[in-house]
Design brief:
By secondary structure, the chain is α+β, with helices and mostly antiparallel strands. The chain is built from nine helices and 14 strands. A hairpin with a 2-residue loop joins strand 3 and strand 4 (60-62). The protein is globular, with a radius of gyration of 20 Å.
């Protein structure tokens, strides 16, 4: 039986990043910092985004994917997050003045120390019913243009830990790129992360994840250069150089993992029951109408 997946169908390459910074809200695993931080702080980030996007009503945070059917409403109670991480006031105190809390301007902007940026800037992770073929707004071409260097984008990610000397270059590049898509929140946050790491001498962990395909049960990544994650049109064998980073190692054969679920969102009917969910959905529709 297929689990409820955050994405079905093809997935574009994406940047996964996190800042190394001492914090009581997470443990630091330097071997896979971005993945571990995502897993540890995902629920807190979802609630924070819910407040920012006015998706929290009566302490219930509703999933951002639009639906007119109350039986399809997905949501979670804010108290479930507060019980684990602490109340809103303590979270605002911990994250409010944190050097690693990127692009924060509200008291409810929490856990801004990690993120995902799709190279197709029209793609949104977490929306199950995403159109299978999306028009591409390509981050790779924006970065290559800023660098005046073909395939320069890929050469930025040959090391997962960005060295101090490279942070300044990265901040400069994304300071040029981010204003071109000023309404793209994940890109703005990553640009801020690069600049903060340069300014405060914090370590930045970044990995480029190749494109892939989610069938609802498994997520299969495409073959790609094991060093820079460039996806060649034809599979490369050992000794054939990568067009982007010139590595002569063979392509990574393409990993398989469990597909990302929709946690912490649950079908609201299972929590409130059918009648109360329908009543809440009507109130939520009115609530959202004030922000359209």
């Amino acid at each position: 039986m297929k689990r409820t997946a955050a994405v079905l169908g093809p997935t574009p390459p994406f940047i996964r990043w996190a800042i190394e910074h001492d914090c009581a809200l997470r443990d630091l695993d330097v071997e896979s910092l971005a993945d571990q931080t995502f897993r540890q702080l995902r629920n807190l980030r979802e609630l924070s985004n819910g407040y920012r996007e006015a998706r929290v009503l009566e302490d219930i945070c509703v999933h951002p994917a639009p639906t007119g059917d109350p039986s399809a409403f997905r949501a979670f109670h804010a108290d479930e997050v507060f019980d684990f991480f602490g109340d809103a006031a303590s979270l605002s105190q911990q994250c409010g003045d944190c050097d690693a809390n990127c692009n924060a301007d509200l008291k409810t902007d929490w856990a801004g120390c990690f993120g995902l940026v799709s190279v197709n800037l029209n793609f949104t992770f977490g929306h199950t019913m995403q159109t299978q073929v999306l028009p591409a707004d390509n981050l790779i071409s924006l970065v290559d243009h800023a660098m005046a260097e073909e395939n320069g984008f890929y050469r930025l990610w040959t090391q997962k830990w960005i060295e101090e000397t490279a942070i300044t270059q990265l901040a400069s590049i994304f300071t040029m790129v981010a204003p071109q898509r000023a309404d793209h929140a994940p890109l703005q946050q990553f640009a801020d992360a690069c600049q903060r790491c340069a300014d405060h001498r914090m370590r930045l962990f970044v990995e480029l994840i190749p494109g892939g395909f989610s069938d609802g049960t498994h997520w299969k990544l495409n073959r790609a250069c094991e060093k820079c994650r460039f996806e060649s049109q034809t599979p490369r064998e050992k000794g054939v150089h990568c067009p982007a980073c010139k590595s002569r190692n063979p392509d990574d054969f393409g990993r398989k993992a469990k597909v990302l679920g929709l946690r912490p969102y649950l079908l609201l009917e299972r929590v409130l029951g059918k009648t109360k969910t329908q009543e809440f959905a009507a109130r939520y529709k009115d609530h959202r109408g004030h922000y359209q």
